[in-house]
Every structure is written in structure tokens, then in C-alpha cells.
Amino acid sequence: MGLERQKMKNITIALPEIYVENIEKIQNIGLVPSRSEAIRLAIREFLKKEVHTCKLLGYDLQDD
Fold first, then answer.
1. Structure pTM?
2. Cα–Cα 20 to 30 A to 53, which of 37, 42, 44, 60?
3. DSSP string, the chain
């Protein structure tokens, strides 16, 4: 994923209220511009960690 803008797809998720409250707190202090961006950042970090773990374990994550 280079610097080009990625196509976005809307999804609907349910989150525990405490998650939403904390996301809104970090949005209110300016750490993220929106709830969507906070969730995108969290997912991005999760995926980077999981891909790294899979590579360490020898899994091939290439498309077939």
C-alpha cells in the first residue's frame, strides 16, 4: 500500500460501549480525527502484527 488513496468499503460492526467511549475520548483530545480512523489504525496495527507472526511461523500469506 503506497501513498495512493485506497478504495474504502463500509462495514457495520458492534463494539462494547467502553470501546466506543474510549475511542471518543482519544478523538476529543485530538489523537485521531474520527472514530473510523481510530478503528482503521487499530486494525492496521493488528494486521501488521499478525502478518509478522505468521511469517515467523512459516505461513505463506500470498494469494493463490
1. 0.71
2. 37
3. --SSPPPP--------HHHHHHHHHHHHTTSSS-HHHHHHHHHHHHHHHHHHHHHHTT------
